[in-house]
Design goal:
By secondary structure, the chain is mostly helical. The protein is built from 13 helices and two strands. It has a two-stranded antiparallel ribbon. The protein binds benzoyl coenzyme A. The site of benzoyl coenzyme A has 28 residues, from α2, α6 and α9.
């Protein structure tokens, strides 16, 4: 285990640095490289390259935004859940997602970015969030397909992130992944019940799987040859596997689970390649993916509008919390 310097070292992103700062940075870089090479963890007070900090902030804040925007397709179904049991489960799941957002915003804050700024970027439409949440949830079976496919993809992508080199991110992911596996099981169970129900219910389940299959595969990000960030993120032990590796792994899991569900994945080209040991799928519509990222997906406008409304409606809570904190601080300084 590499020993840390007693005094935290700060990186200076600007080009103009004094000789003292340059020596300081060189020492910091050496320590950083050693920590990464031994697959240990970088903590908030450690020196880190400006680009590492920026990459983490980009990924963690996008992830946090995805969690809170991801509450919308499901919260729209809370009042229409078919039973009290399903309603209670769905409320708990949506609440968990708010919690995931919270852990992730907190992790991003340790990198020096204020939560207000991240929120401002989201509601101004400057920040990304996962493409998947710009698709509509049109029937109750979509709650099953989201849980099974979307949370399934999330688990596949996020379990390796529990070993991310940045301590606060990796630790947040451990708890998130535990909750995600409950989410996936509840989605699987909704689909299993529908699939074993009436022919109309089975068709509703199959239609939902047909709608969410391709968007779920695209959640993993662009193919490796079009993924500009993967190589460096993997060298820094933030990402552990490439987008395509995770997509293939996910596909293999879903093929087996679809058999148990009695449902079909809507892709005639799925096959296991004995030579490469990898699962293959049919072509995905990457133009559609790019359009969704540009804000032109079926629900982008609706999701952003709802987020802005929720932010405005929550202003009184933020003001009350700030007033209370100011009062407490005043009391403490008077004591
Ligand atoms: N959607 O170089 P690449 C959840 C962007 S929450 C939108 O491969 P990277 C859940 C990418 O950001 C699910 N944008 O990037 C919640 C980059 O643009 P910038 C969210 C995407 O970072 C509630 C550009 O495309 N999960 O599961 O190496 C309910 C090039 O890509 C997407 C996470 O955020 C996308 N799908 O890899 C239920 C996990 N894909 O930033 C469920 C953490 C790519 O350069 N994040 N882009 O402008 C990651 O693992 C990685 O950031 C990604 C992308 C695999 C997503």
């Amino acid at each position: 285990m590499t020993e840390r310097n007693a005094t935290p070292l700060r990186s200076v992103p600007e080009a103009e640095v004094s000789p003292e700062q340059a020596a300081h940075d060189a020492e910091g870089q050496e320590l950083f490289d050693r920590i990464i090479a031994e697959d240990s963890r970088i903590e908030p007070r450690d020196w880190m390259p400006a680009a590492y900090r920026k990459t983490l902030l980009r990924q963690i804040s996008q992830h946090a935004h995805s969690e809170i925007i991801g509450m919308q397709p499901e919260s729209n179904w809370i009042t229409r859940a078919p039973s009290l049991k399903r309603k209670a489960i769905l409320i708990a799941k949506v609440q968990d997602e708010a919690g995931h957002g919270l852990y992730l915003y907190s992790a991003a804050e340790t990198l020096g970015q204020g939560r207000d700024q991240m929120m401002e970027d989201l509601i101004a439409g400057k920040a990304k969030y996962s493409s998947i949440f710009n698709y509509p949830a049109v029937t109750w079976a979509d709650m099953g397909a989201i849980g099974w496919l979307v949370d399934g993809a999330a688990i596949c992508n996020q379990v390796p992130l529990c070993r991310a080199s940045y301590g606060p991110y990796g630790r947040a992911m451990v708890r998130i992944c535990k909750e995600e596996s409950f989410h996936q099981r509840q989605g699987f169970e909704i689909l299993l019940e529908l699939s074993n129900g009436t022919p109309a219910q089975k068709k509703m389940a199959q239609d939902a799987v047909n709608r969410w299959y391709a968007p779920a595969l695209m959640m993993f990000g662009p193919p490796d040859e079009d993924s500009p960030n993967s190589k460096q993120s993997m060298a820094w032990n933030i990402k552990r596997f490439s987008n395509d590796e995770l997509r293939q792994r996910f596909l293999g899991m879903m093929v087996e689970q679809a058999k148990v569900l009695g449902l079909t994945l809507p892709d005639e080209d799925i096959r296991y390649n004995e030579e490469t040991g990898k699962w293959e799928h049919g072509p995905l519509d990457w133009d559609e993916f790019k359009n969704v990222l540009k804000g032109q997906g079926p629900c982008n406008a609706q999701r952003m509008e709802r987020r802005r409304e929720a932010h405005a409606e929550g202003a009184w809570v933020r003001e009350a919390a700030a007033a209370y904190a100011a009062k407490q601080a005043q009391k403490e300084s008077a004591a």
